[in-house]
User: Which sequence fits this backbone?
């Protein structure tokens, strides 16, 4: 045998393919986790130009930052459609207002609320859904308007020491 036969290389080929596929799938999976930051000011969630990068966050792989700690910027975000996200960070002085027929599902694991998370339906159902184990942190408020259509699902309180 001359060492160049196909038979001699086949075990290496069999190892290369699974390793290549593993690296490929790992790189694809990590590319789906995206940080999306509100650009600041007042506007609607579902307008892509209000976000950086230029995309509307809707999927549990999105980590959403309402204005991302920009100094001197106050933001008011209106969510009037349905959306789901992974994590949410709401800065001091900022408001995320989920209103008429809007809904937000948060998969977590973290909601850092230092502003106001508000459900303010005056008619249609407005839902905040907690999916899985989500930790709420921060000095902000969760405000439910006076309408019975403002609903929170999946929230369990666990006291901390």
Assistant:
């Amino acid at each position: 045998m001359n060492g160049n036969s196909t038979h001699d290389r086949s075990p290496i080929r069999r190892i290369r393919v699974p390793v290549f596929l593993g690296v490929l799938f790992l790189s694809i999976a990590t590319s789906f986790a995206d940080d999306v930051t509100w650009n600041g000011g007042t506007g609607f969630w579902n307008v892509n130009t209000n976000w950086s990068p230029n995309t509307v966050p809707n999927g549990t792989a999105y980590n959403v930052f309402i204005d991302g700690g920009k100094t001197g910027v106050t933001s008011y975000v209106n969510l009037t459609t349905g959306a789901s996200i992974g994590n949410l960070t709401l800065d001091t002085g900022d408001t995320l207002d989920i209103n008429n027929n809007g809904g937000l599902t948060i998969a977590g694991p973290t909601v850092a609320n230092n502003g106001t998370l508000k459900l303010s339906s005056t008619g249609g159902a407005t839902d905040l859904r907690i999916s899985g184990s989500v930790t709420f942190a921060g000095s902000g408020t969760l405000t439910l308007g006076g309408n019975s259509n403002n609903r929170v699902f999946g929230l369990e309180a666990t006291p901390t020491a």
User: Anything to note?
Assistant: The longest helix spans residues 6-30. The chain is about 15% helix and 40% strand.
